[in-house]
Every structure is written in structure tokens, then in C-alpha cells.
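User: Reviewer 2 asked us to show a designed sequence for the structure in our supplementary figure. I'm pasting the C-alpha cells here. Could you produce the per-position amino acids so we can include them in the response letter?
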């Protein structure tokens, strides 16, 4: 999924990362100080929206303390006021280890899968499990790698590998292993060569490349390599491995058996029978195994965040399901976002009585009151001119554009008049226009040209309205 890709890892202008500029790529976090209050200026890409950010910071603390379960956070506010950005900032703050599963309300509508099934799947994507296992492994630097070939008994031609001999070296000594050909395949997959430090799990035969032995560190290498020291101790040893998986991973691993790796297959062995579909029964069995692991202290539950954007797109069926799911013992933290005011709750428009013309139940944000009651609501407010200007400046910087001061002022006014998103979107076309003119900096003229080419939503609606009154057709 990973929205959490560009975390606040210094935010250095590394070429590849700057090159991929998406709508929210300037957002690196919530920009809060030690005291939980919003930092002034463009902290981590966030500007203004102070109280909403502070509220999200509090929620973040609650989530970290695992005290937010059973409730939901609802971000409500007009279009382009930074709701999605807030949720993504929160995801960055949570870090890589806590699962974050973003979805959009309309994702539940599929002709093949039940709506609640889609919701359930996403719920399980947002619940993590940190598993500590002690594994029997062979670890060391490869000093010998010799596959032994034999005649293929099935066809007269071609050869197969009958076994492979590997010698592993540690500080203490060297050990030669004679291994199954299937392990040779995984060695090939990991692109292991002599001089690499690897470990092989004794039970499953999974091979993991740790890095290149630092004895080779003086070698000239084109690619960036990770050099690791020669492992200490014996080649054959017990090692603690920590793994982060989500319940959804476990579901999938057990529904689609692919054969032996890691925790997935361990659970797979415990859950009897192989299935090809994730059923409620399978989930139940997995939950039981997970519960046992937690009781034994092998695993730790890491409730993550499920973010449902455009939540008004869900219908009554989904909302009642959400109510129940929020109250279950293992539930992730739920964040909802909507830009609707009072509107009809989907799925209540038609009450099933023939001939009736039920208009549906109107509720704030299109969310039924009982769910709304379980929500903590945070409002995002429309931006003022200075904030719009700051966001625009930041965006221009992220996209590597230069812009004249008067053009920036004009763009800010456009943003105030129509929306922040509209003026953000004008930046790139204006930059292209200015490049065509041979300029390196966006000037007012470029901007005016781009405004005349791309009209905003309100202007478009006005055009339509005047056309409609003229002849009722859009032409
Ligand atoms: N406070 C802010 N600081 C920096 N950038 C912001 C801020 N608020 C919004 N943005 C940027 O403005 C754009 C629009 O914001 P966003 O998509 O979050 O709006 P939204 O509230 O989700 O709107 P909608 O209701 O239409 O989905 C995005 O590119 C976002 O990154
Ligand atoms: Mg949004």
C-alpha cells in the first residue's frame, strides 16, 4: 500500500523521491512540537489548520497508548481543506510498524464481493501482529556454493540439480551443508553469491540474504551494498526473529497455500485444511490461533488505522456493520472523512413499500446518528489568504517551480475565490506555459493564460447555468 513510504527520514532532496510528486507529497507529518501544539510555519509540510492538527496529535497519542479503540475520528470540513492530508500526516507519524489502511467509501460497491466483506477485509488489513519467534537457523558468510547436477529422470535431455553444497563461515568456524535443490532455488531468487552473509531457516528452508560480508568492503561496487560483519557464534544456532504481519496477510496466506515460509505457514499448520477462499470460519480459526499466540506471549497485537475517505458514500448496511465492528475486541482505530453537510444516508432512500416515495433519512454528514455518536468529530476550516499562499509556495518548491511574487498573489486570490485545490492545480500548467515562452519563472502572464484555459468549478457551473437558461443544452 504504502502511503508511509516517504516518512520523515530527513526529507533529503534525493532525486528519485522528488521526481515523483503526488498530490500530497509535501505532507511529511502533522508538524507538532514536543508539547503537542502545532509548530509555526511549514512544519513537516503542514500549514495552518491548527486546531485540527492539535486534535489529530491527541488522537495519535491515544492510538500509541492503545486507548482509542471502539471510537472513531471523523474529519469533517469543506472540500480542499486538508482532511485527506491530515489523515496521511497521521499515517506518517505512526511510522512503518503500525498498519495504515486507506480506503474510499465507494470501494465497497462491487458486483462480486459483499460490501461488508470489503469492509471486513480492510479492517483486518489494519490490524497488525508482531510475532517474536526463535528459529533454528544456519547463518554465515558463503565460502562455497556448488550445485551438483544429475540426469533428469523424467526427460532424456536436460539436467536437474540433485543437491547443493554450501559452506558457511562465522567467526568461530566453517560448516559445510548439503541441501535440498528447493533451497538452491530460493538462493537463486535472493541473488546470493559467494561472499554474502545469509541465513537459512532450518525448518522451512527459507533463505534470507543479510548483506555482503564486510571483508569485501574494499571492492569497487557500482550498486550501493550493505556490508555486514561476519556473524559471531556457531553456524547452526537459534535466533530471535521479529515479524510484522497483518491479520489480512494471515488470512491470505492460509487461503492460498503457497508452501512454507515464516509465521504464515506456522499458523497454516495449526489451522487445518487448505482453503482457497477467505471465509468467516477461516477468520475465526485464525483469530483463535492468534489469541493463543498472544496469551503465550509470542505475539503482540498492534491495532493500526483504517482510514475511510468520503465516508458519506457508505450505505446503511455498511454503517451498521461499522457500529458492530468498532465494538469488537480486536478492532483497529477508525478515521473517517467527509466533506458533506446534512445529506441523505445512502440506502435509506427507498423503504421497500411499493408506491411510497421515501426521501430517505437526512443526517449530518450522511452518517446515521448512532454511528455519529461513537465519533469524535474534528472540523477543518476553510483557509485564509496567508495560509493559501504558504501552501502554494510549498507546493511550488516541492514541484521544483519558481514563481513571481505577483503571480503568487494572483494565485492566492484565485484560491480564495474558488478553492485551494484549484489554484494548486494551476501551478503545473502555468509552469509549462512559462517554459514554452522561454522563461524559468512563472509570471503573471503565464498564470493568466492558464486561468483562461482551465476554468474553475464555479465558473463552469455558471457557464452551464447560463447555457441552460438559453437553450437547455450544453453546447
Ligand atoms: N494545511 C495544509 N498544509 C499543506 N497542504 C495542504 C493543507 N491543507 C491542504 N493541503 C493540500 O491541499 C490539497 C487539498 O487537500 P485535501 O486533498 O487534503 O483536501 P480534502 O479536505 O481531503 O478535500 P475533499 O473533501 O475534496 O476530499 C492537497 O494537495 C493537500 O496536500
Ligand atoms: Mg479528500
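Assistant: Here is a per-position design you can include in the supplement:
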Amino acid at each position: 500500500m504504502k502511503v508511509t513510504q516517504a516518512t520523515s527520514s530527513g526529507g533529503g532532496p534525493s532525486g528519485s523521491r522528488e521526481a515523483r510528486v503526488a498530490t500530497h507529497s509535501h505532507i511529511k507529518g502533522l508538524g507538532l512540537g514536543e508539547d503537542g501544539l502545532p509548530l509555526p510555519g511549514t512544519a513537516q509540510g503542514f500549514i495552518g489548520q491548527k486546531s485540527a492538527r492539535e486534535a489529530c496529535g491527541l488522537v495519535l497519542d491515544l492510538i500509541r497508548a492503545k486507548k482509542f479503540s471502539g471510537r472513531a475520528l471523523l474529519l469533517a470540513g469543506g472540500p480542499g481543506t486538508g482532511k485527506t492530508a491530515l489523515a496521511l500526516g497521521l499515517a506518517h507519524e505512526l511510522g512503518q510498524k503500525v498498519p495504515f489502511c486507506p480506503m474510499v467509501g465507494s470501494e465497497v460497491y462491487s458486483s462480486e464481493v459483499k460490501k461488508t466483506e470489503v469492509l471486513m477485509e480492510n479492517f483486518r488489513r489494519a490490524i497488525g501482529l508482531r510475532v517474536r519467534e526463535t528459529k533454528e537457523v544456519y547463518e554465515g558468510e558463503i565460502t562455497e556454493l556448488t550445485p551438483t547436477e544429475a540426469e533428469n529422470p523424467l526427460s532424456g535431455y536436460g539436467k536437474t540439480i540433485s543437491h547443493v553444497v554450501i559452506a558457511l563461515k562465522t567467526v568461530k568456524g566453517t560448516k559445510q551443508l548439503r541441501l535440498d535443490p528447493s533451497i538452491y532455488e530460493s538462493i537463486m531468487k535472493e541473488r546470493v553469491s559467494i561472499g554474502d552473509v545469509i541465513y537459512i531457516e532450518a525448518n522451512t528452508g527459507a533463505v534470507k540474504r543479510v548483506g555482503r560480508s564486510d571483508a569485501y568492503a574494499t571492492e569497487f561496487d557500482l550498486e550501493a551494498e550493505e556490508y555486514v560483519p561476519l556473524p559471531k557464534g556457531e553456524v547452526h544456532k537459534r535466533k530471535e526473529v521479529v515479524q510484522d504481519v497483518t491479520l489480512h496477510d494471515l488470512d491470505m496466506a492460509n487461503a492460498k497455500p503457497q508452501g512454507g515460509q515464516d509465521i504464515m505457514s506456522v499458523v497454516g499448520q495449526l489451522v487445518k485444511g487448505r482453503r482457497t477462499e477467505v471465509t468467516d470460519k477461516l477468520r475465526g480459526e485464525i483469530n483463535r490461533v492468534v489469541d493463543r499466540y498472544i496469551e503465550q506471549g509470542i505475539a503482540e497485537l498492534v491495532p493500526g488505522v483504517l482510514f475511510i475517505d468520503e465516508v458519506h458514500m457508505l450505505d446503511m448496511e455498511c454503517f451498521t456493520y461499522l457500529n458492530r465492528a468498532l465494538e469488537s475486541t480486536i478492532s483497529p482505530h477508525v478515521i473517517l472523512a467527509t466533506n458533506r453537510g446534512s445529506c441523505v444516508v445512502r440506502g435509506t432512500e427507498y423503504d421497500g413499500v411499493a408506491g411510497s416515495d421515501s426521501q430517505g433519512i437526512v443526517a449530518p454528514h450522511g452518517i446515521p446518528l448512532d454511528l455519529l455518536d461513537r465519533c469524535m468529530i474534528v472540523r477543518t476550516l476553510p483557509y485564509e489568504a496567508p495560509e493559501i499562499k504558504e501552501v502554494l509556495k510549498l507546493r511550488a518548491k516541492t514541484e521544483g517551480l519558481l514563481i513571481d511574487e505577483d503571480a503568487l498573489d494572483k494565485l492566492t486570490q484565485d484560491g480564495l475565490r474558488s478553492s485551494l485545490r484549484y489554484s494548486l492545480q494551476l501551478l503545473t500548467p502555468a509552469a509549462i506555459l512559462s517554459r514554452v515562452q522561454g522563461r524559468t519563472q512563472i509570471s503573471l502572464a503565464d498564470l493568466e493564460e492558464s486561468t483562461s484555459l482551465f476554468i474553475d468549478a464555479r465558473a463552469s457551473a455558471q457557464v452551464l447555468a447560463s447555457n441552460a437558461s438559453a437553450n437547455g443544452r450544453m453546447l
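For the response letter, you might also mention the following. The two ends are 42 Å apart (CA to CA). Residues 280-296 form the longest helix (17 residues).
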